[in-house]
Fold:
Amino acid sequence: MEGFKSFLKRKDIEISGKRYGVDALGAMAQGLFASLLIGTIIKTLGQQLGLEALVTVGDYANAMAGPAMAVSIGYALHCPPLVLFSLITVGSAANSLGGAGGPLAVLVVTVVAAELGKLVSKETKVDILVTPLVTILSGVGLASLCAPQIGAAASWLGQLIMWATELQPFWMGILVSVLVGIFLTLPISSAAICAALGLTGLAGGAAVAGCCAQMVGFAVMSWRENRIGGLVSQGLGTSMLQMGNIVRNPRIWIPPILASAITGPLATCLFHLEMNGSPVSSGMGTCGLVGQIGVYTGWVADVAAGTKAAITPFDWAGLVLICFVLPAILCAFGGNLLRKMGWIRENDLKLED
Structure:
């Protein structure tokens, strides 16, 4: 047993919650942002400006989500070069087969393939053949076996959202806002789920509210730890960057979740905020302001179709309050309260440099 432990240590294989639940998750969030999320931002910008070249660039970036996440995870697991580069294929397979649960499938499959690749790395004289072979075959094989099931589970979560849309606007606003906001921060593609379900209308508006509560909420709550960098990376990037910190201290998730439970029904019942743009925008929140652009383009389309008389000051007030002002106020208050209670300690919200 001691010999095996020494072997694992030599291979830098650390089977722990921190390595997989904190380091790998945090790196995967950066990979997701550097591909799918930034790609969606670029594509949306291109669509709004009528620049087809930007739309094409966005499509290319979106297509690389799986490989980008896998390489990011491999980097966090300290993979040797041949293992790291082989994970490109593994990430592509897991993300494609995982559907709406692609990011979660990439995480599970990549961790296993990376560690198996590290086990055999530089153990033979034909390392250049053995290491990629083991990494790719194990990763693609595991993806074929479990990624569709992970995707089905993610789709089931999406069906739960669809069920919530059938309820009265008040309860629907709470459920959809809270659930989609949670999905946004978890290693599940909330944008892909919203797109797969065609989540628009009031349900889409509630989804936007929940995503904004998470992103703006964490950005404001963690100001003292992360300053302007954290404000931008979370407020305009993704709250998934906090996933590692949530694993360490789940209590930091309380203010954003409660904020989404408040802003969701306000969006549906008071401001009647609807997402009549692209469904994928429902799951983007303030990421590159894609959610807000989606709501605006929906307004424009409705006015052009004659189903909406005009874009009113009340519409704009609702959008700003739901997406920015209320999440900031509610989470700043909730975060300070939990700090005073000792539930949030210093650096609990600090992002990795």
Notes: The chain has two domains: 2-147, 167-341. The mean pLDDT is 90. The chain has 15 helices and no strands.
